[in-house]
Amino acid sequence: MHIASIDKMPINFKSPTQPASEKAAVSEHKEVKVGDSEDAKESGSDTVHISMEGMKKLDEESKSDTEHLPQHIKQMIEAIENIIEMIEQAEEVLAKAKEENYPDEETKRQVIEGHQNQVSSLQQAKNDAITNLIDAMKEAGISEPGIIADLMG
Q1: Which residues make beta-bridge pairs with 51?
Q2: Residues 29, 53: contact at Cβ < 8 Å?
Q3: Distances (CA, A) of 41 to 1, 35, 147
Q4: pLDDT at residue 12 above 50?
Q5: Would you call 33 helix, strand, or coil by DSSP?
Q6: Stretch 130-137: mean pLDDT, rounded?
Q7: Which of 36, 46, 53, 94 is a Cys-bridge partner for 115, taking CB atoms 3.0 to 4.6 Å apart?
Q8: 35-50 pLDDT per residue, tens
């Protein structure tokens, strides 16, 4: 399974059936559908259960992947992550704007268009920042394609 495809997976926060002793140790599980990958076909299983502890460990490992990077690269990554959060917020505002009632269709069109322009502008800023990060990483002699893939996902 590739990390880049993780955002396409449905997540179920219900715990699978397990003995009481294991339920006490693990309070929540995420159920991740694997789909029709070759691994799933070979193993006969189509779900993977990851405990919250396991998710935290994965998160810590991904953060430790950037610890060795120069400070300016870390700052660029943080800025891109901030832009991603801004995009998510702008998309939420756009979705709400589409649901609002307006006095007329022209007003609705203008409001929605303004929010769509904001989302597009932020997406362009993210793409530009990723391009600048790639260039900075090349100049520093760093080859970490996983970092770029995570940010583009």
Answers
A1: 29
A2: no
A3: 13, 9, 29
A4: no
A5: strand
A6: 96
A7: 94
A8: 444 444 454 556 777 7
